[in-house]
Amino acid sequence: MKFTDILLIVINFAGALAVFLFAMKLMSEGLQKVAGSKMRAVLGKITNNPLSGILTGTAVTAAIQSSSATTVMVVSFVNAGILSLSGAVAVIMGANIGTTVTAWIITLLGLGEASGQFSLPLLLAAVSLVFIFASKDKLKSVGQTIVGLALLLIGMNLLKGAMPNLEEYPGLLQGIASLGGYGFWSVLLFVAIGALLTCIVQASAATMAITLLMLHNGWIGLDVAVALVMGENIGTTITANLAATVAGVAGKRAARAHLMFNVIGVTLTLILFRPIIAMVQAVFPTDMPMALALFHTSFNVLNVGVQSWFIPQIVWIVTRMVPDKEEKEEFPAYRLSYISRGPVNTAELNLQSAKKEIQLFSKQVLRMYALLPDLRTAKSEKDFEAVMKRIEDYEHLTDQMEMELTKFLTAVGSGDLSSHASERVSSMLRIIDNLESIGDNILQIALTRRNKRSDAVHFSDALNDNLAHMNALVENALMVMDANLVDYDHADLEAAEAAEHDVNVYRDELRAAHLEALKHGTYGYPIGNAYSTLYAQYEKLADHVINVSEAIDPSYRHQS
């Protein structure tokens, strides 16, 4: 075989594979958009009941045609505290069953003689949906899904055409046959090859399609194909583990559980390798691709059936594989805690993680605000400066959080989003901008306290009580804001408006009393200036607080 022949085969095959991978991505993203927030809500409500987790993982993965997307979501949800580790293990088990649907789609629609006949009408139907119903996101997403399916069938035809004819290149068949001449060691070798290919391609559907085509064309026997599929099941776990590299301890444990589940399943299957091959061949004695699809489903169903009884033990093991780490620094370098930057990065699926990250941002702001009263009660300069240092550290942290979240949400916003998701990204950007401004305002209040202290300005008990009451009113507004960030669909915006109203009314009372005090010479300019600056800064802070709640529903102020 000439070098140019090999190069031509590689180029054709790579091009066909690129079409197939693009089709899978397009179809998966379309399905995820159709499912939308309902899919995230379903995953977020999983209980510790293993059966519900397995069924949900199966249904979600079958619906969105991406086990990688499901497992990356699971890692994020565990990391965010939305899903328990045992619940995550059950969902991951179900995802392994759900992903077997892909093999049946490829086998039934992509390998038949008439498979190409589906493509053009499906593509035309999808284009019609996209253009006729362009204003309806749901129908556009359905159209995208159909386009993806059409391209997948085209990709399968291209892959079949790119496969070289073994009669022309007998050396290829001899090379593959030589790898199968080592008995059980050959099985292990093909398991390793399947895992490696899936790690490289980062799509188990693509390696499954290649395996089915090689089996269909007679390049490999059923035993080699089965070994490759088992390796693909191990290789696909790399996606979740890559996503978990930047996740917290809980996310890493979920990813390790995914790897452990598949490795155990492959090990058990290897023990019964020959009987399993005989079983699937007995069901489909002449149709090897159908036999392989049956094995893929049976392998995962039986694997789940056995290991689902040992979920507590799996959790116990991965908990010891990834032990808890104590945070030594109070203010370590900030990184996104709930957002997984794995290879599967569908824009629609990032919003739940971004929401949890914003909730963390809000909690940090509340902790920062809680330090302000300590400045007034500090008994020594050392105590005062220690509190100031913590406030300054928090302010630096809020700057970092705003920068990282803005960068992330801007990247999400540049993706293919539904109109609802696009509005949510814009809303989140306004929220984090105002949260960072709250941090700035807290620092300004602290700096005013420092200037007052250095200038030896002392307030009377009455003035201190007034500011303490203003502090409590703003704290109430912050608490309402924090609660509203938990569930955007049920935010209590009227409570937020009422809290801000209370702050404004009290600010007006303090201003009127302050002007009267200045008129009657109750206190001098240094005290009056520091006092008016502080209550004005509190009120300005409250403005940003209400902006956060209103950003959740931009139409609220217009309605009120």
Detailed description of the structure:
The protein has 560 residues and is mainly α. The protein has 24 helices and no strands. Helix 4 packs across helix 13.
Task: Summarize, please.
The protein is mainly α and 560 residues long. The chain contains 24 helices and no strands.
Helix and strand element order = HHHHHHHHHHHHHHHHHHHHHHHH
Query: Termini distance?
Result: 77 Å
Overall body shape: elongated
Query: How large is the count of helical segments?
Result: 24
Q: Compute the gyration radius: what is it?
A: 30 Å
Most strands sheet: none
Structural class: mainly alpha
Average residue pLDDT: 80
Tally of individual domains: 2
Beta strand count:
0
Spans of 5+ residues with little confidence (pLDDT < 50)? 326-330
Residues in helix, %? over 70%
- Beta-strand percent range: under 5%
How does the SSE layout of this entry go?
Elements: H1 3-44, H2 50-64, H3 67-79, H4 85-98, H5 101-110, H6 119-132, H7 137-162, H8 170-179, H9 184-201, H10 204-216, H11 222-235, H12 238-243, H13 249-271, H14 273-283, H15 288-307, H16 311-321, H17 347-369, H18 372-377, H19 381-413, H20 419-454, H21 461-484, H22 493-519, H23 525-552, H24 556-559
Notable characteristics:
560 residues, mainly alpha, Methane Monooxygenase Hydroxylase, Chain G, domain 1, 24 helices, elongated
